């Protein structure tokens, strides 16, 4: 056999190796491209989520500042609080213990809220959810008018809602919700905590939120 033929014979087995190497490199390149695309898509999603969260925070901050400005005078009295867009009023300011009868000073306080809230809700096409809350102590009512804390909180929310309407708030802008002893803002282990949990809150919400709210009632 000639020297040329021997060289050709020695080269023939190496051809499949290069073919396999080329296929492997093509596969690795394809996988790298897929991984890179996946990383880019994740980054795009994260950026979009971050931008959406920033816009949400801006909207919430704008709403908070507008509500704070609208309620500047009632807030200065110290009997009204504003936390995360919720207007809070202590139950002792509005009602005697275990009662749904509005105190005269409580009604006067609600009256001061009507006009600024009407303007605020009208500018944003929103409505006001009036929510009643209690502590976890069993009802101590000699007349047994209320079977439990949920019923008491519901009646208090309705009482506040009706008082707001009587003082000039349009009824279509209001609805009542009852939570009883749920969602406490303090521990019920002492009187101070229980007094904080006995409260009524009012929160501006989109009009579509009414259907999703638990234990809602019309005034």
From TrEMBL:
Q: Does the keyword Cell division apply?
A: no
Question: Region Disordered: what ranges?
Answer: 186-219
Start-end of Low complexity biased regions = 203-212
Q: Which InterPro entries match?
A: Bact_OuterMem_StrucFunc, OmpA-like, OmpA-like_sf
User: Ranges for the OmpA-like domain?
Assistant: 82-208
**Record field: transmembrane:** 20-42
Against PANTHER family, the record matches this protein to: LIPOPROTEIN YIAD-RELATED, STATOR ELEMENT OF FLAGELLAR MOTOR COMPLEX
Q: What keywords tag this UniProt record? A: Membrane, Transmembrane, Transmembrane helix
Spans of biased composition, class Basic and acidic residues?
189-201
Q: What is this protein called?
A: OmpA family protein
Q: Signal sequence: where?
A: none
